[in-house]
Write a structure and sequence with these properties.
The complex is a heterotrimer of chains A (127), B (83) and C (94). Chain A is α+β, with helices and mostly antiparallel strands. Helices cover 54% and strands 18% of the residues of chain A. In chain A, a hairpin with a 3-residue loop joins strand 2 and strand 3. Chain B has one domain. The longest helix of chain B has 30 residues. The chains are: A alpha+beta (127), B mainly alpha (83), C mainly alpha (94).
């Protein structure tokens, strides 16, 4: 609930770039009025851990990009990654976003039973 | 700055050529996705060069709308392959 | 100093663009090209926009919005393309 509100208000202020009282009121009412879907509530701890992951993902992505450029990765393979089963949709979405954001790995498919098919590039040649 | 702009336009030529030459539909989609992002960034770049923010807003909109449209198109192509 | 950092960001972004876009011409699988495109289109563009941001900090809301849009939509597009193309290709192989 609060996370939603903060997210929408951030987008609103970035869009309008205007911090007058009238604008704040309009933004607040719009972000309260927009419908939202029902999802399982997440604990604060999960949010904190995912926030940490997001902040870490950006430098990690650049490190991987330089790694890809300096040492050519020519091989590709598929792996399955296990995650916990009961996660809310938003957390699953963020997980997929984070995995796909780093250039070495891309999520190809998400299975309801709780694992992702991940495609990645590697260095070692196939025997 | 304008040297960078020329380099960026040169890069833009690569996916254009690829979209023209390649016959596989998914390779074409990749090329179009690349074109969409690159044009949007070019628009933003030019807006900074000319110091004109109306153009910059167009760039931000193209960034969103172009990618969203390609996502829809990918889903449609997948459905058409299935039936 | 600020100018130097911003030019470095811009040049790094353009180099990423070149590196990531050239594999489009080769004969690799869609997924492999997607990896290199995510280097160029997401990370390279992020670095270019960041360079612009350092150059003209006055209009930061629009540029920050552009970065957020770029990251969200580009990675989602990558996922959707990977998902659709892989399930499409499996059908063709059958």
């Amino acid at each position: 609930m609060v996370g939603h509100l903060i997210f929408r208000l951030t987008i609103w202020f970035l869009l309008t770039a205007n911090l007058s009282w009238l604008n704040i009121l309009i933004g607040l009412s719009i972000s309260l009025l927009l419908p939202r879907g029902y999802t399982n509530p997440e604990t604060l701890k999960e949010w904190l851990s995912i926030l940490g992951k997001i902040l870490w993902a950006i430098p990690l992505a650049y490190i991987e990009a330089f790694d890809l450029i300096l040492r050519p990765h020519n091989d590709e393979d598929m792996v399955c990654e296990q995650v916990e089963k009961k996660r809310s949709h938003r957390l699953v979405f963020l997980d997929i976003l984070l995995i796909t954001f780093t250039p070495k790995t891309i999520v190809v498919k998400y299975h309801e039973e709780g694992w992702y098919e991940v495609h990645r590039v590697t260095r070692r040649k196939k025997p | 700055m304008s040297l960078l702009l020329i380099a960026m336009i040169l890069v833009l030529l690569i996916p254009l050529y690829d979209a023209w030459k390649n016959d596989n539909i998914w390779q074409k989609m990749l090329a179009f996705a690349s074109i969409s992002t690159k044009t949007a960034i070019l628009i933003l770049f030019i807006s900074v060069l000319r110091d004109d923010w109306a153009i910059g807003i167009v760039g931000a909109i193209v960034l969103t709308v172009g990618n969203a449209a390609l996502m829809l198109l990918a889903n449609i192509i997948k459905r058409m392959n299935e039936t | 100093m600020m100018d130097f950092i911003s030019y470095t960001c811009l040049i790094v972004g353009v180099i990423f663009w070149f590196w990531g876009t050239i594999p489009l011409l080769s004969e690799r699988s869609v997924l492999f090209k997607l990896h290199s495109l995510s280097v160029s289109d997401t990370l390279g563009s992020m670095s270019i926009i960041f360079g612009l941001l350092l150059k003209i900090p006055r209009e930061w809301p629009l540029l920050v919005l552009a970065i957020v849009c770029l990251v969200l939509w580009n990675t989602m597009l990558g996922y959707v393309l990977a998902y659709c193309s892989s399930s499409g290709e499996k059908r063709e192989n059958r």
